[in-house]
Amino acid sequence: MRYRRVTGLLSVLLLCFLFGETAIAKPEVTSVRLGLHKDKTRFVMEMSEKPEYNIFFLPNPYRIVIDMQEVSWKPGNKKVRKTGVIENYRYGLFRQGTSRVVLDLNRPVKVLRKVILPPSEGKPYRFFIDVQKTDKSTFQTAVTESRKRQVAMTVPAIKTAPPPKNEKQLNIIIDAGHGGIDPGAIGKSGVYEKQLTLAVARKLKQKLSLNKRYHILMTRSNDTFVSLRERVNFARKNEADLFISIHADSIGRSDIRGSTVYTLSENASDDEAAALANTNNKSDVIAGVDLEEQDDTVQGILIDLAQRETMNFSVKFAKMLIPEIARSGMKVGGHSHRFAGFRVLKAPDVPSVLVELGYLSNKKDEQILKSEIGQRKLANSIALAVDKYFEAIKP
Ligand SMILES: [Zn+2]
Known about the structure:
- This protein is α/β, with parallel strands linked by helices and 395 residues long.
- It is built from 10 helices and 15 strands.
- It has helices spanning 2-23, 136-148, 193-208, 228-237, 271-281, 283-286, 295-298, 305-327, 363-370, 372-393; strands spanning 28-37, 40-47, 53-58, 63-69, 72-73, 86-95, 98-105, 109-117, 125-133, 170-176, 214-218, 242-247, 259-264, 332-340, 352-356.
- Bound molecules: zinc ion.
- Zinc ion binds next to loops.
């Protein structure tokens, strides 16, 4: 009896130890502002704790990236007004433990001064960065210098376990589009694409997990950023049998609605598909990832022979998926299977599709995508297509 009480107490202590870390409040960024001064543009963050930061520069397009300890971001994601050399900025979780701010610049700049002021007169920590326009070569030097300091950045977001595969098991990767600092499209109601893709991805995982033949893996299971390359590599390392990328983008016309399924192709099926691929391929740029270090993403989409074989399977799945989505009640148009150069579909040995569940630029679609029942129906329709696909390709 006494023994039991002791082990009980120990497990409580253990739980406190395990979860204690997440219980500790994160430092808060309470406000952010941009200021235009004579000859310089100022970026200021007010924080409840001293920032531990790392700044680096990225070209094409010109950006300054500020990585710091994971913070809770109070200012929200309001629309930013262009100020001096700063066009825009974004905030989001980049990695567990690392928050990121990306400043988009309209020209090459140099940092004149960065200062942390300690709390005083009721004000918290203030972190100032003053920037000023400079020439391309000075900026390039800063890029090269800061690349050297980015060792920590190369740590992959997704820890890849060795494939747990046995002969009968099928590895399915569910890829919730966007995440963390990359919100994806933004709906009329202010909902982010990254929230909806994750919600549907989770429901799809739940549904598919009921089948013991399937081993389900997710490229992300929380609101964090994962680069396109990491998503592709994750699928390859796990010898995935199928890769399903989930999106809900927006386009210029609010009357267009419905689901579309995309597969990879060097040449897009139409201009809209090309534009959509282009938007989704920008994810890494938005998140402040150094594209020069990722040669395979800098070069366009070149498809090799092995990939063509794989693509037949992708197309097969895409064609089975469309009628299932239609049966769920979601509109699917005449051109519901299209193709374009989506980088996330590039694993040469993994049949991959990208599902645009609907358009956040359309009110009705947004409504469906935001609703529990809409998400559930869409997830179930994808799961049904998965069953049919594996049944159809069975040797
Ligand atoms: Zn998207």
